[in-house]
Amino acid sequence: MLKPESYAAGRWIAPGETATTIIGPVSGEPIAVAGGAALDMQEMLDHARTKGGPALRAMTFHERAKMLKALATYLDTRKEELYALNPATGATRRDGAIDIDGGIGTMFVFASKGRREMPDGHVYIDGEVEQLSRKGTFLGQHIAVPLQGVAVHINAFNFPVWGMLEKLAPTLLAGVPAIVKPATQTSYLTEACFRMMIESGLLPEGAAQLIVGRTGDLLDRLGAQDVVSFTGSADTATMLRSNPNLVKNSTRFLAEQDSLNAAILGPDADPDSPEFALFIKEATSEITAKAGQKCTAMRRLIVPESQLEAVAKALSDKLGNIVLGDPSSKETRMGALASLDQKADVLEKLAQLAPETRVICGGPDALSDNLANGAFLPPTLLACDDPDAATVVHSVEAFGPVSTLLPYRDLAHAAELANRGGGSLVSSLFTNEPQVARDVTLSSAAWHGRIYINGRASADESTGHGSPLPHMVHGGPGRAGGGEELGGVRGVLHYMQRTAIQGSPDMISAITGTWIKGAAETTGPQHPFQRTFDEIVIGETLHTDPRTVTLDDIEHFAHFTGDTFYAHMDEEAAKANPFFPGRVAHGYLLLSFAAGLFVQPDPGPVLANTGLNGLSFQKPVSPGDSIKVRLTCKRKTKRTDAYGEVAWNVTLTNQDGDQVAEYELLTMVSYER
Ligand code: NDP
Description:
Elements: E1 6-8, E2 11-13, E3 20-23, E4 30-34, H1 41-58, H2 61-77, H3 79-85, H4 93-117, E5 124-125, E6 130-131, E7 139-146, E8 151-154, H5 162-174, E9 178-181, H6 187-199, E10 208-210, E11 227-232, H7 234-241, H8 244-248, E12 252-257, E13 262-265, H9 274-288, E14 300-304, H10 308-320, H11 340-353, E15 358-361, E16 380-383, E17 402-408, H12 411-419, E18 427-430, H13 434-444, E19 451-454, E20 473-475, E21 484-486, H14 489-493, E22 496-503, H15 505-512, E23 541-543, E24 547-548, H16 551-561, H17 566-569, H18 571-576, H19 587-598, E25 606-617, E26 626-638, E27 643-654, E28 659-670
Parallel strand pairs: 8-9, 8-11, 9-10, 11-12, 13-14, 13-18, 14-17, 16-17, 18-19
Antiparallel strand pairs: 1-2, 3-4, 5-7, 6-7, 7-22, 15-16, 20-21, 23-26, 24-26, 25-28, 26-27, 27-28
Helix pairs in contact: 2-4, 2-5, 3-6, 4-5, 9-10, 12-13
The structure holds NADPH dihydro-nicotinamide-adenine-dinucleotide phosphate.
NADPH dihydro-nicotinamide-adenine-dinucleotide phosphate (NDP) binds next to strand 11, helix 7 and strand 12.
């Protein structure tokens, strides 16, 4: 008998006297006892707020990203222990891969995004500096900082590992401690993974705690700096989000709940097309993976009227070959639902769908006797012949291996049917026609969190309708909960406060650790290219001597590079152009001269120039004009153990002091001389 434990204020706590007995979905026999322990919710919150939060916030985004990478690497080395427990949840190894490898992979992606897209500091800069004054002495900047509270994660039964890790990764990267509450039915698998994270010793004390069982009065104790992130049913979400204490404190509540996702077969996809075959393949997988218990699963298959019977035949042929049974057996393609209760729920929903649908294949009557004790249900395909008059197919979700075919007349009708789900996590389209993709997207994107388009061009590399990716937003409007998870840094920002800061350039620069125009410039003791990464100071500036640009220079550059564009070579033609007073210097010539002016040629800590950002040419430079350069250290980011990236703001000005060009120069600079 498994006995998953809670982890509260640094202690493991065994199930208590009122623990719930968990019935295994495969055998129908008890497999675990969970919950029922008297947990002190205030102690857990205090532990997170006074220990975990401060420890996480003391780290930079990059340090937290490195911690996530180490955690994911550690879990990866021990994942077979999780796979060993996985069949007890009713899931096959393939299902387990979505959950276990999917969860670890999500953590790796956040680790990498944290290093690449967030600063090696404590403040995240959101957008450009806003010019709030004429002379530039008073500016605005949006920043984001970690919330100073706790994230409470309430997870669903269907993804015991991914569900925990996909919420933990952005939360920890933001710098916020979490209290994780898995669904009781599969809590033993979540606990096994959570225990590994604690055993890794990589998390600061108080950064993560676990509640197996009920949350008691936890939500009544949350405040303005806390976040609840929920995945599960719409009813529970509604009940929890209307908790008076959460409402009173405007506590953030993110919900990702059941949705009636659609998949549209394009009008161009006839039965011989690659798109038709792809539709059948993905629909089969969506109905059977995790026995259909995926929040993203295709529930409504919207197909051209003329193709309804062809799709019904092709899909029922495929579904008829699915081997249903013990998830630990290699032959099994589809395991059990997560619990007997879940099976009862799906049967009840099938009964509600019955008046509006006919059964194409599957259904409870098709279940073989030897599987009757477990939570098994054959893949079930329904068809609804009058989707306009129907209401239940657009509102009731059977959270199991069940999908319904709906015929459409034209594309507008297809989009209208997809939108009748009232808001979904994902809607997909199988087409080879860009115009079909555009029409469907414009008429339905407002109703869906993600639109997945697949066809022959993307088939080999597409990631699948049902896979929420850490890079892309996962969530949806309306019935899907109105929340958003993942989506790269967007997912991290849910656990941070966006604040508009206003002040002088020096104030803003000191807060963000980034030099901005108007902030103090300093001069170092040596040329900046002779200074190591650590020696270079934000705001450190080099002013060069001027250099005159001659007609000979322009001629030489034109013939040397082959860029004999008329604006550089033909006085009359250049003059006729509204941008130029006559022949002008090439922008790239100016860039090259700028490098010649600011570079210190000796070997030194600067290792390489790795790029330019935001280059703009603002004023033409004519023969006889002279240019000089200002180079200021804007930002520093550690990249490896040996070197970091220094970003420089570079401006070129002419003899009148007018700015003619600006860009951000990126260099890699060694920590050693
Ligand atoms: P629930 O909404 O009942 O449970 C989701 C989570 O909320 C679980 O961790 C559950 O814990 C917890 N919970 C329930 N009541 C409370 C409460 N009063 N206070 C704090 N936490 C609470 O969903 P189910 O797991 O029972 O699934 C029911 C339906 O939800 C499915 O049939 C499906 O339609 C939908 N669903 C949608 C998912 C999605 O990803 N969008 C995923 C899973 C389900 P406990 O397990 O201890 O009850």
